[in-house]
Amino acid sequence: MPNLTSVAVIMNPEQAPQAGMMRAIETAASTLTVKVSSLSVRDPLERSLTSFAQEGNGGVIGLPNPVLDENRELIARVAVQHGLPSIYTFRYYVTSGGLMSYGIDSFDHLQKAASYVDRILRGAKPTDLPVEQPTKFELVINLKTAKMLGLTIPQSLLATADEVIE
Fold first, then answer.
1. Structure letter (DSSP) for residue 109
2. Residue 37: pLDDT band by 50, 70, 90 thresholds?
3. For the domain 6-103+136-165, what is the CATH superfamily, name and number?
4. Which residue, of 43, 46, 75, 153, has the greatest Cβ tally within 10 A?
5. How is the chain split among helix, strand and coil, in percent rounded to 5?
6. Do 51 and 66 form a contact (C-beta atoms < 8 A)?
7. Dist. CA 113–CA 135, nearest whole Å
8. In this structure, what are the phi and psi dihedrals at residue 54, rounded to the nearest 5 degrees?
């Protein structure tokens, strides 16, 4: 999106981790001279996205949230309707019509959690277990959505994707 001038971040401002994510997005956006707006998951999402889209040359970032999960198909539909490319944290947003996702591999993450549960059930003290950061990330791109948005995804990006939905 070479003409991108603004980004709407759909988030829950009451969650401390999301406030930290928002600060990181604002820092990155300022280096690109992109305006950042936040849309609360508590607001009517369809109306908020439609209003944001009227500014033009915008995109959407969806931060992980149960309300966003429940409304992912609506958000994807409204984003495409208004020509807003969207990026999310998990692949299931892309299979629901979002443009792309980049985030932890949920299956790998759950396997690691199961390993922790196993160790605890075998007698390990939770305080003795190391804190592990995610190590496996995945990029998923929906070419059908890209086509509906009139976007051409660079071949170099497609080559690095873990999954391309056609």
1. H
2. very high
3. Response regulator (3.40.50.2300)
4. 75
5. 45, 20, 35
6. no
7. 13
8. -65, -20
15 phi-psi bin (left φ>0, alpha ψ -120 to 50, beta other): beta
DSSP state, residue 32: T
Res 164: pLDDT: 96
Structure-block tokens of residue 117: 């549960």
Give residues with Cβ within 8 angstroms of 138, minimum separation 6.
91, 101, 102, 103, 104, 105, 162, 163
CA-to-CA distance for 21 and 153, rounded, in angstroms?
25
For the stretch 60-98, pLDDT in tens is 999 988 888 888 999 999 999 999 999 999 999 999 999
Residue 23 main-chain phi, psi, to 5 deg: -60, -40
Let me know how long the chain is.
166
Estimate to the nearest angstrom the gap between the alpha carbon of 9 and the chain centroid: 9
Domains of the chain, residue spans: 6-103+136-165
Q: What confidence category does residue 143 fall into, taking pLDDT thresholds of 50, 70 and 90?
A: very high
Name 87's Cβ contacts closer than 8 Å, sequence gap at least 6: 59, 60, 61, 62, 98, 99, 100, 101, 102
Report which of 71, 54, 67 is spatially closest to residue 18, judged by C-alpha positions: 67
Which residue bears the tokens 């981790």? 17
